């Protein structure tokens, strides 16, 4: 069970998820990395989406003093994601592999697109506050991870 989420941006969260999203499952020794290739070809969309939303929400809360990161909501969402990944057959080793190979270019592009779309100006906390309030008001995935 997850007791605390150490937040250090998108990559830190992805690494955290790789270590904690699924319980360690023992194998009979016959599974190889090649046999698990289907799980290692691409980060699951639900993992990427959660990690991205959490990273953006964390950044908003870091820049805007009136908005806080909702850790309990993040833990709740992570618990649901954990069960979903277990159901799909993911092992901890699969997620560790994916965390080491996170699509950095995609994350950078998505972050730039978010900043442009949301009107955030780096260094201007009021723009982060406005973006956070919009996310909360619109009940977005990012907004669900914020309170304020």
Tell me what you see in this structure.
With 148 residues, the protein is mainly alpha-helical. It has 7 helices and 2 strands; from the N terminus they run H-H-H-E-H-H-H-H-E. The protein has helices at residues 9-20, 37-40, 45-63, 71-87, 92-100, 104-118, 125-137, and strands spanning 68-69, 146-147. Mean pLDDT is 77; it is low at 1-30.
How are the elements arranged and paired?
Elements: H1 9-20, H2 37-40, H3 45-63, E1 68-69, H4 71-87, H5 92-100, H6 104-118, H7 125-137, E2 146-147
Antiparallel strand pairs: 1-2
How much helical structure, as a percent, in the residues? 55-70%
Please count the helical segments: 7
- Percent of residues in β-strands: under 5%
- Residue-averaged pLDDT, rounded? 77
Summarize the structure.
The chain has 148 residues and is mainly alpha-helical.
What keywords describe this structure?
single chain; 148 residues; mainly alpha; two-stranded antiparallel sheet; 3% strand; globular
